[in-house]
Amino acid sequence: MLAGLARRASTGLAVVAGVVTLTFFLLRLAPGDPVALLVGPAATPAQIAAQRRVLELDRPLAVQYGAWLGRFARGEWGTSIATGRPVLALLAEAVPATLELVGLSLLLSYLLGVAVGAVQATAHRRVDTALSVATVTLFAVPGYWLGLMLVMVFTYWARALPAFGRAGLDSDFLSGGAWLADRLRHLVLPLTTLTLIGIGGAARFVRGAMLDVVGQPFVRTALAKGLAPFRVAQRHVARNALIPVVVLLGLSVPTLFSGAVFVEFVFAWPGVGRRLVEAVLARDYPVVMAATAVSAILVVVGNLVADALVGWIDPRIRHQTEAM
Amino acid sequence: MKRLLRDRRAIFGAGVLIVVVAAALAAPLVSTGDAAAQPDIVATRFLAPLATDARGAIHPLGTDRFGRDVWTRLVYGARVSLGVGTLAVLLAIAIGLAVGAVAGYWRGPVRSVLLAFTDFVLALPRVVLLLLLATLWRPSAALVILVLGVTGWMSVARLVQGEVRALAARPFVEGALALGLSRARILWRHILPNALTPVIVAAALGIGNAIMLEAGLSFLGLGVQPPTPSWGNMIASGRDTLVNAPWVAAAPGIALVLVVVACTLLGDALQDALNPMQRLRR
Predict the structure, then answer these.
(1) Does the domain at residues A2-31+77-323 carry the CATH identifier 1.10.238.10?
(2) Which of B20, B112, B132 is best to mutate for the A interface (most A CBs within 10 A)?
(3) Residue A245 pLDDT level (bands cut at 50, 70, 90)
(4) Span A106-112, mean pLDDT?
(5) Which among A139, A265, A281 is the nearest to B264, CB-wise?
(6) A162-201 residues labelled b (16+ CB within 10 A) or e (exposed)
């Protein structure tokens, strides 16, 4: 199992390296000059050239790439062209916010999604159809639009919840319970948005996985030898249906992260996704590259964790990777 | 086909899509005919749905902050959103078919390299890739089509690869070889037509996804540019007027959800109809 995981980890590393390389060359090949954006329309050609030299953008591509790779590996991610702040610090602030939002919504949408999917697979046909309509609709709702609608209802109409950011303006002066309450109030809307969308996908998948297992011969055997249907559902069906669900957990990390990009943007949530959008709009090369690399790393790690979980749940897969 | 006609999901999905496509095609007939018209920015701005303006013209979905008719923009936006989504999926399918056919038919290093590359692109977060590509050039509908196509072909390639591989081992392919047909001709005339079934399902699901992503890019200002209406940039413009004119953002969002639900249901129904083995397990 360890050998299998190591192989997976090296594949993951290759993905991250590929993303970083791709990002670097794509950004350099594209039209649009970050220096011109930085110094403004009134700058003289001499000023632009000087700024270009300061940012080392006048050197050959291969040299820039080599230098950037070396610095990237050492953790020197440069300074943001747009804000003048160190990229590492910018992203170090952003990663916890994204992990908080994505992690919690992954947990919630899976717990609720598995529950809904399991009910669908076992309940009456009518219930199943009604829930199917609901999950397909949730699955089709764009996160940023759902976010806007929730803001309209809960912020503008009900005036109950804040719509922007991770903390109130006075958060530095709050302490203990008040501080926590402020944080939670800011978390409610973005988390609800992301979770609702996640439930749709998870429930659809769990329903399919459970129905696949229900048709298997060992379920009939278990029922035939007189086990209670609830016990069969719990011990035999759920356990086997869990395997594809955990695989999906890993696969849905990129999707969820993609959703988080839009949701963070709408709610001004100070995470990696919002930083990425801002940097992309400003052609802030160092931040774009680092944010892309960080998202690739988050996704690859998510997949690795899911692989490890699958091996842990299913001994067959564990031994398979050992034999290979 | 019979099975499909009895499937309520297929009927609903196809029905919604037919109505939306018809409205988009007949846009000049069912609306005021000019999506950018600002008759009187003071008198007709922020009219509520079903309101009548000073000149007696009715606005079924109200007007936005420039006094533009939301219903008109919605049906003209449908042209853009559906068109971009469809073309993007066609491009993705073309790339996926080419990669999948080659990887499935030619054994050895070609297959390994192509499959490894497919897996690599599949492992990237698609929105991150989209954001990168969409900002490289001046935003336009053509760029969105290109970018969505280039990031959406992987699942088609994997499906086609599997089908082609299975078909290449069948007796009728051996027969064609024995008749002296060239490998390219066998692939094009005998194998590919038989490998298209899963592609149909992927296309139905893919169009919904592509429409949603187009809207997302346009919402961020990286896709179709105003004043050309697209459902995404309509939602973005409604974002600023959520308080006094919520219908500006609500209407295109509801249209978007309806179309994506329709595509998903149609795709699911097609999957069941074309793949009886899977249904038997129920």
Answers:
(1) no
(2) B132
(3) confident
(4) 88
(5) A139
(6) bbeebbbeeeeeeeeeebeebeeebbebbbbbbbbbbbbb
